[in-house]
């Protein structure tokens, strides 16, 4: 059984730790945030992910999963060390690799025998080479080690499911020595015939960015189609269904929305564009994707503004802040741009999200008020706005909503309602592209 340390216990590190423990390895999750580790040691999750709590408890109970802030000891203890720290957007859109390189330095200073270093964080081409250089430069005893690029493709909100049932596992290396260990730690997937793609470090690094940029492009594309549908009076729902039936295109990721957000698409598109420029290879499609998505968030705000003409003093209830349902993550959520624009225009905002309220309070503090549920949030408002497609917003009691609201405008920016059913209750219905 391998001893695996995961450095960085966020969405990816924690999911990876729990998943690999569940596959049979002995796992130690490490982080610099003591509050996070304390919480985990008490059996509580620092994030919301469906199905994660049960799996956490099971693996802790059978002794395969532990948590610590002692990163140095964790490095010494492990055979395999995963790097799963954040790579946020840095200067000029480039990935900020400070945390990754700090971990590499720490590994170099504490390595005490042969180890495999696996990068899970999303990092630009060449980063794994640099990690290798930093470890060697900081390692006084020149122990041997191998570097593996093993990018993660999980979706927040389905992180556990995706880790246990991935579409593929990518393993990038510059020599064959660590491959057997990688096969062993992912053995249940290997036995289940999940495709494993073995490649070099650079290709593995670029696969992750290509996947995210392609998906971001698909979202931006259907949102552009929604805008043109609005303009000419066509229906984007029917359009998406018909276009998606083409097997070459596929129906996934063809859902109009207030614009993509979250902790990955915005920063990864920016990072690949910045990397392309630096490499002397500008990436026009991805640049256009970023611009289109920015425009779309603004367009959604304009739709609200257009309806009221003057937003000063207009009361708006916002349902949904997370960048998508089933997560409490509001990093780069479209809600941030839209709410901030509404506030700038003098609107009075009350917000509600089933999971993201704590994080919302850190952003908006007392510039908005916070509802206790969907009905409390829309009480007395002139207009209500759905921004996240949480299940509990899909089946609202429209009669009750109508009687609680002061006005009658129903903005559905996830197109989850049938316009005629909403209008039948006396609302003015405004969706996207329909
Ligand atoms: P996160 O911010 O949720 O977690 C990162 C963790 O690393 C934090 O808990 C932080 O305290 C810790 N950390 C920072 N510096 C550290 C250090 N020096 N030593 C130990 N711990 C340290 O980030 P995330 O969403 O889990 O993303 C991690 C990486 O995975 C990023 O590169 C991201 O692009 C990539 N990724 C994310 C997702 C996703 O959906 N969130 C999916 C695939 C890939």
Give the integer mean of the pLDDT values: 97
Structural class: alpha/beta
Poorly predicted runs: none
Form type: globular
Q: Please give the share of residues in helix.
A: 40-55%
Can you describe this structure?
Helix 10 (201-232) packs parallel to helix 13 (284-308). The chain is globular and about 75 Å long. Helix content is 45%, strand content 14%. It is built from 18 helices and 14 strands. The strands form two sheets. An eight-stranded mixed sheet has the order 3-2-1-4-5-6-7-8, sandwiched between helices.
Which features would summarize this protein structure in a list?
single chain, 434 residues, alpha/beta, 8-stranded mixed beta sheet, 6-stranded parallel beta sheet, 18 helices, 14 strands, binds nicotinamide-adenine-dinucleotide
Compile the SSE list and pairings.
Layout: E1 3-7, H1 11-22, E2 26-30, H2 34-41, H3 52-61, E3 65-68, H4 71-77, E4 80-83, H5 98-110, E5 115-119, H6 127-138, E6 145-149, H7 159-164, E7 169-173, H8 179-185, H9 187-191, E8 196-199, H10 201-232, H11 236-244, H12 265-278, H13 284-308, E9 315-319, H14 334-344, E10 348-352, H15 357-364, E11 369-370, H16 374-378, E12 383-386, H17 398-404, E13 409-412, H18 419-423, E14 428-430
Parallel strand pairs: 1-2, 1-4, 2-3, 4-5, 5-6, 7-8, 9-10, 9-12, 10-11, 12-13, 13-14
Antiparallel strand pairs: 6-7
Helix pairs in contact: 1-3, 4-5, 5-6, 10-11, 10-12, 10-13, 12-13, 13-14
């Amino acid at each position: 059984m391998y001893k695996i340390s995961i450095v960085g216990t966020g969405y990816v590190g924690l999911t990876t730790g729990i998943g690999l423990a569940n596959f049979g390895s002995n796992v130690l999750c490490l982080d610099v945030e003591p509050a996070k580790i304390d919480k985990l040691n008490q059996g509580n999750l620092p994030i919301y992910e469906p199905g994660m709590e049960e799996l956490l408890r099971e693996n802790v109970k059978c002794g395969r999963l532990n948590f610590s802030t002692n990163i140095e000891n964790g490095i010494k203890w492990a055979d395999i060390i995963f790097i799963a720290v954040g790579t946020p957007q840095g200067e000029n859109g480039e990935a900020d690799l400070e945390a990754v390189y700090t971990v590499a330095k720490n590994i170099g200073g504490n390595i005490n025998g042969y180890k495999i270093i696996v990068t899970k964080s999303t990092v630009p081409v060449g980063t794994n080479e640099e990690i290798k250089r930093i470890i060697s430069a900081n390692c006084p005893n020149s122990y041997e080690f191998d570097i593996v690029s093993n990018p993660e493709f999980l979706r927040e909100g389905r992180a556990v499911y995706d880790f246990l049932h991935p579409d593929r596992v990518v393993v990038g290396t510059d020599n064959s020595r660590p491959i057997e260990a990688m096969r062993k730690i992912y053995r249940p997937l290997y036995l289940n015939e999940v495709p494993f793609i073995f490649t070099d470090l650079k290709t593995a690094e670029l696969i992750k960015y290509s996947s995210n940029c392609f998906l971001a492009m698909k979202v931006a594309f259907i949102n552009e189609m929604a805008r043109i549908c609005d303009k000419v009076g066509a229906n984007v729902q029917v359009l998406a269904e018909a276009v998606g039936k083409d097997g070459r295109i596929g129906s996934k990721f063809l859902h109009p929305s207030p614009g993509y957000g979250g902790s990955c698409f915005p920063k990864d598109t920016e990072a690949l564009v910045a990397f392309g420029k630096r490499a002397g290879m500008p990436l026009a499609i991805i640049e256009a994707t970023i611009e289109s998505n920015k425009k779309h968030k603004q367009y959604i705000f304009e739709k609200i503004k257009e309806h009221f003409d003057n937003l000063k003093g207009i009361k708006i209830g916002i349902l949904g802040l997370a960048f998508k349902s089933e997560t409490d993550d509001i990093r780069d959520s479209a809600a941030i741009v839209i709410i901030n624009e509404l506030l700038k225009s003098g609107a009075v905002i009350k917000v509600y999200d089933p999971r993201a309220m704590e994080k919302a309070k850190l952003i908006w503090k007392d510039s908005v008020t916070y509802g206790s549920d969907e009905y409390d949030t829309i009480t007395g408002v002139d207009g209500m706005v759905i921004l996240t497609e949480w299940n509990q917003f899909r089946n609202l009691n429209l009669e009750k909503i109508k009687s609680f609201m002061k006005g009658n405008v129903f903005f559905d920016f996830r197109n989850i309602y049938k316009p005629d059913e909403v209008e039948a209750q006396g609302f003015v219905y405004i969706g996207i592209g329909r």
